[in-house]
Specification:
The chain starts with 23 loop residues before the first strand and ends in a 5-residue tail after the last helix. It has two domains: 134 residues, Electron Transport, Fmn-binding Protein, Chain A (Pnp Oxidase, Chain A), CATH 2.30.110.10; 55 residues, Up-down Bundle (Methane Monooxygenase Hydroxylase, Chain G, domain 1), CATH 1.20.58. It is α+β, with helices and mostly antiparallel strands. It is globular. Helix 2 runs parallel beside helix 5 and helix 3 packs parallel to helix 5. It is built from five helices and seven strands; from the N terminus they run βββαβαβββααα. A seven-stranded antiparallel β-sheet has the order 3-7-6-4-1-2-5. About 5% of the residues have low confidence.
């Protein structure tokens, strides 16, 4: 699937997000790298505050930070697939096309640096996200699955294991707990996703 399969909406500043944003929505973003391939990463999208734009923050000199800075945009995608999300959050993954097959909806965004600073030794940049094109690929009835939520939380804990300001042992305890949730409440796909977490994280819990 490629972005050219858009159902329409046009490329203008009035393009709306294809979903109602609230709080922080965990998404997958693809950004074009210097090798002309699309880097896949996790991205938390913060809902607009009043009339302001939706925003996202990159931490460190990541590929997403580099590609946002050099390319000025990317494709934010809403996927329910826990394996795709785990790989986006914890691995280096590149694709030939910007839109993943698992994306239920996507939005192409232009980005603009809004704020920046450091926390400890880590640089952060806040980006304003402006939709320029979007499409809904499939409409689904939402369900609540604790296993899926546990996979998402596990990727957050895993990504912080090597950050000095976090308690590593506490994070490992959280990973063990999230794994138990996946084992008891997750589907086969969530279990496969947690196996990917184990494969991608250099730690035992």
């Amino acid at each position: 699937m490629t972005a050219d399969s858009s159902a329409g909406g046009g490329r203008d500043s009035e393009t709306a997000w294809p979903v109602a944003l609230a709080g922080v929505t965990e998404t997958v973003v693809t950004t074009l790298g210097p090798n002309e391939r699309w880097n896949v990463a996790a991205l938390g999208v913060h809902a607009p505050d009043g009339d302001g734009p939706a925003t996202a923050t990159t931490w460190g000199r990541t590929r997403t930070w580099r590609n946002f800075r050099e390319r000025g945009g990317g494709y934010v995608q809403f996927t329910r697939d826990p394996v795709d999300f785990a790989e986006a959050a914890l691995s280096v993954r590149e694709e030939d096309d910007p839109v993943l097959d698992s994306a239920d909806a996507w939005v192409e965004v232009n980005v603009k640096r809004r704020d920046a600073g450091t926390e400890g030794d880590t640089q952060w940049v806040e980006w304003a996200l402006q939709p320029v094109d979007s499409a809904v690929e499939r409409r689904v009835v939402p369900t609540t699955n604790r296993g899926h939520a546990a996979v998402v939380e596990a990727t957050v804990a895993a990504s912080r294991l090597d950050v000095p300001s976090y308690d590593r042992e506490a994070l490992l305890d959280r990973l063990a707990y999230f794994e138990s949730v996946v084992e008891t409440a997750g589907s086969e796909r969530e279990r496969a996703a947690f196996e990917r977490v184990r494969d991608l994280v250099d730690a035992e819990w």
